[in-house]
Amino acid sequence: MEGPGLQTPPDDAAAARYSFLFPIGYSNSSECGYCRRTRSGFSYYAIATSLTPAFYQKLVDRCWRRSGTLLYRPNQRHSCCPHYTLRLDSTQFRPTKDQRQAVNRFNHHILGDTYAREAARLHPRTRAEARRRHNVFDLLERVHESEAGVLKGPPPAPDHAFTVTLEPDTFTEEKYAIFENYQRLVHREPPDKISRHGFKRFLCNSPLERGSLAGPDGRERRLGSFHQCYRIDGQLVAIGVLDLLPDCVSAVYFLYHESIHWLNPGKLGALREIALAREEGYRWWYPGYYVHNCAKMRYKIEYKPQYVLDPEDLNWYLLDKEALALFDKGHYVCLSRKGVTEGATAPESTSHPPSPEAPLSTPPQHSSNSDDEDQDEEEDEETSFLLTSSMPGIPTLAEMEALDMDGLVLRSDFAEGFVLASHLVVWESESVGQVGTLKSRVAELIAAVGPDLMGEVCIDFRKRVGA
Ligand SMILES: [Zn+2]
């Protein structure tokens, strides 16, 4: 791959290999989605206009996540609720009794007694099969067991017809009806805060490019953002919003109609996604950030074995008893050093229900005249400049000053095609340490994604439609 160091800008045909990012900067969230504190969590933010799945995979493996087109990497050191990236190895997954029961209960609800009785009569299990079924819970077999299409004929028909389809993440009124119901009745959001615009913005039309990849076993894996749609008797009842990346099924959000709440849809969805990771060869399932001090997040670590991404060395560590003890002990945890920072800023418990996931946590206000209460009008440079923020896993200011970024590729409304950073008039005169300059902003973005990925990024300064 070409990258820094090239003399002439790449031609338009090269566009497909870049991910297009607009740097927003390092700032304080206006409100924490978990403890509802204001201005208590720092992250680096960027807007993605287009992302290749391979590039986004690398970002999620460096603590990034996305909420619609907004990408962010939290500073675990400066946060009321430090966010850690988790992943589960689907090939090693062993469901708990509770998880197994949820699947069995659901299958029984769909198939019904009559079907079960007749199926047992028409397709009796051998003694060995019955014993195996009693002793072994085959996740892939069980999650598909009640699906129309895999049922063995002849009739009787089951009580309900259940289907699951992986669909593009486009907006439909059918999907919006589920979102509206879920946000209002399950998530208890005020109705005036729920809109088609919000649904589209957070959960539809992601910047991830859709594609496919042949795995080492020759199987084609789908890549991109999808809605996994669950229907009972033709009615949409639940949606899993998924990012399918080269090495993972990344769970973005899960929403369902309150009428099926009693069936434990969240659990069923998670198991289904783990099964997808296993059967299609993605291997890893990413359940989203883990926030240790948030009780509502604990369900994520009931799926085991789970690994946590260390924000400093960016390696994965088994989230076992020993690791959890570190999280109990401190506020900021670094597993590679087994280091803990005592929690002076750990939030008190609150009666507010925490937002379930990132899409609904409040992104920062970017306009200078936002209607935030001005608690701290001026953040000093120390806290609003990524390169002096002591954010884990980020190069230092000195390292960024020493980095050759001349070959970086940019796009703007003032030029046709790609432009090299070194061709910009201001590039020579500005320095990385001059906070607020173009060069400094670009350096922050490159530091946040990692200098080794510079050749995969196009800094996109074009005016965004709807921005
Ligand atoms: Zn918080």
From TrEMBL:
Region (Disordered): 343-388
Recorded family membership: Belongs to the R-transferase family.
Alphabetical UniProt keywords: Acyltransferase, Transferase
Top-rank EC class of the record's enzyme: transferase
Protein name: arginyltransferase
UniProt keyword Plastid present: no
Signal sequence, start to end: none
Recorded superkingdom: Eukaryota
Residue ranges of every copy of the N-end aminoacyl transferase N-terminal domain listed in the record: 30-101
